[in-house]
Specification:
mainly alpha; 17 helices; globular
């Protein structure tokens, strides 16, 4: 294998381990709670601390790689991620675990955009680059989909701490291969960092997630919860103003003038609210309502994992809008089918609905990604991909925060699960409505406007 092949391996390891940690923790949340204590709200923060920081920093991380070199930033991100993973595995209590998960998110936000920048640098030929990016994305998709199954197996055989320690050899290998084989990218000294926008984005997202999570425990009328909602609104408004008026915005708002771009971004947000919120709740349903072990819970998600990968393979045969509509219909049908079952439901009666959920997701994600990238000029694909990543990870944060509050009380797992299913059906209907904006001819061109500097910004996952 030549140097380019080793670079592909290193970047795939970086992207894959980031996506794995988005989903691997879900089946371990019950054992973590039993070992370290804490209620559902604390377990929500175990999941969300990682995703929240990941979502909040990814747009800026790409700019940092452009400014000082993607290779050195990628290596630093891998080192941070690996050390934070070890911190998670050694955590003596939930506070340390949640903090270490947030630091993991910092590393993840760096790894994703810089991994694709390194790939672009290693494969200058367009055809070879397309094949390399396809392998890079496929590996990450498989890691993301396999997370619940791998988490269940590791938790059952080695304990929940193993789901974090497994990152150590991957991280070490990634750092060594990158240092040996990857070439450094050129630096863009004028590539600015939108610090005010970055701060506003993190504050808005953190306050919103905190308000939803604590609202489930304290009640929505609690002064602290109301204050958090107010901070989220003010910070969100500040972010919008900063991005609209800034000379170097992290998120150029003019991109949303393209109908396909705006629709695809909204679909990414909504589909992740529904799917990852349900993934969190389903894990609690299997372990707390049906009293299954982490291993059995992980195995229960296996058909869904296979369905996601299978759908990814056939999604290219469908037109973008059709893929989104068919995928949303399948996911909605799966949710509707699950509504009829309670704690005594046999697994055989649930597996068909889980497959429908997974296959539907596997159709929606590639279609919305293609639609989003098709809505902007090619040289803006980096910022476009980063925007979709941010929207999707924000959706994951909100899904876990919202649906987790529904199952937080004693005896509320099954009723809360049913409410989450109804909300998901509503979100999927919204996705079908938004699909009408997919496939139009509107496209935001490259221009000499101030946000042109962002053309090389963030490259994220599809």
């Amino acid at each position: 294998m030549n140097g380019r092949g080793w670079t592909l391996l290193a970047t795939s390891l970086g992207f894959g381990v980031v996506q794995l940690d988005v989903s691997v923790v879900n089946v371990a949340i019950n054992p973590i709670g039993a070992d370290l204590g804490g209620g559902v709200a604390a377990l929500q923060w175990v999941v969300n601390a990682y995703t929240l920081v990941f979502a909040g920093l990814i747009l800026t991380a790409g700019a940092l790689g452009d400014r000082i070199g993607a290779k050195r930033v990628f290596v630093a991100g891998f080192a941070v991620f690996t050390l934070a993973s070890a911190g998670c595995g050694l955590a003596p209590d939930l506070g340390v675990l949640i903090t270490a998960r947030a630091v993991q998110g910092v590393g993840a936000a760096v790894l994703v955009p810089c991994s694709l920048t390194l790939l672009n640098n290693a494969f200058p030929d367009a055809g070879e680059r397309a094949r390399a990016v396809g392998l890079w994305a496929a590996g990450a998709s498989a890691a993301l989909s396999a997370g619940p199954l791998l988490g269940g197996v590791l938790t059952a055989t080695l304990g929940w701490r193993a789901i974090f320690f497994i990152n150590a050899p991957i991280g070490l290998a990634g750092v060594l291969v990158t240092l040996r084989w990857a070439g450094e990218t050129s630096r863009t000294a004028g590539r600015g960092i939108d610090l005010p926008g970055q701060v506003a984005a993190v504050v808005a997202l953190s306050a919103l997630a905190g308000a939803v999570i604590e609202g489930g425990q304290r009640g929505l009328a609690d002064p602290l919860v109301l204050a958090a909602f107010a901070v989220a609104v003010l910070a969100g408004a500040a972010f919008w103003v900063i991005e609209a008026r800034g000379s170097r915005p992290m998120l150029p708002l003019r991109l949303f003038r393209a109908p396909s771009f705006g629709a695809a971004s909204a679909i990414g947000l909504l589909v992740n609210i529904a799917f990852y919120g349900l993934l969190f709740v389903l894990s609690l349903f299997f372990q707390r309502a049906q009293h299954h072990s982490a291993l059995v819970t992980g195995l229960a998600f296996a058909p869904m994992t296979v369905a996601i990968i299978a759908a990814n393979l056939v999604s290219g045969r469908l037109a973008q809008r059709l893929g989104i509509v068919v995928g949303a219909v399948l996911m909605g049908a799966g949710c509707a089918g699950l509504l009829g079952f309670g704690a005594a439901a046999p697994y055989g009666a649930l597996v068909g609905q889980l497959v429908a959920l997974g296959f539907g997701l596997g159709l929606v994600v590639p279609a919305m990604t293609s639609a989003l990238l098709g809505g902007v000029a090619r040289e803006r694909s980096g910022v476009a991909s980063g925007t979709l990543n941010t929207a999707r990870q924000t959706g994951s944060v909100l899904g876990v925060a919202l649906f987790g509050t529904l199952v937080a009380g004693p005896g509320s797992v099954v009723p809360g699960w049913h409410i989450a299913l109804l909300i998901s059906i509503g979100l999927l209907l919204m996705i079908m409505a938004l699909s009408r904006g997919i496939g139009g001819s509107g496209r935001v061109p490259a221009s000499s406007t101030p946000d042109r500097r962002n053309a090389r910004a963030v490259h994220g996952d599809q």
